[in-house]
User: What shape does this take?
Amino acid sequence: MTDESQVIRRAKEGDENAFEQLVAAYEKKIYNLAYRTCQNAQDAMDITQEVFLRVFRAIGGFKEESSFSTWIYRIASNMCIDFARRCAKNNTVSLTVFDEDGEMSDMEIADDTYTPEVFYEKTEIRREIEKGLRRLSPEHRHIIVLRDINGLSYLEIAGILRLEEGTVKSRLSRARAKLASIIMEGNYFQERQSKEGEGRRSV
Assistant: This one.
């Protein structure tokens, strides 16, 4: 029996200290998921609290047919998607992410060169991604958050969303394609392509 299994067993028996250990282990991950999906810090805090309230009420009936992480992510995912449909469209999307240790960092855009021009481009690309994420449907935004920002595997996402793994891959592919299409419609990329075309013509 793993350490987490022992903690879960004690929490199911009513051990409040054990439940607090589960909260400490998953709180930042659930908050990160809620924040990415709903795009508002206060809403994400409220959702996180509600998730753990529901987990506290239901943990006695947790049958352990799936992993605890899958179970709690499923509860959080359902709440996030439902709430995201009601979120204001003008909320901002941050690309800050939390790693497995709960440390905060920015989503990386791979590039080893740090010239002023490259820094400007990376900033503009990040802005276009933020705009694109805001325009995605809650379902598409959520699956990108689970895979590309939270780093969950296809199998984990399939368990959380109760989908076949192949369905997860196809839905993620459509979500990424939609995001790419939205980003490419942005003025920054249109202007960049125009400048590149002018540069080729002048050579």
Observations:
- Residues 88-120 have pLDDT under 50 and may be disordered.
- The first helix runs from residue 3 to 12.
- The longest strand covers residues 96-98.
- The two ends are 68 Å apart (CA to CA).
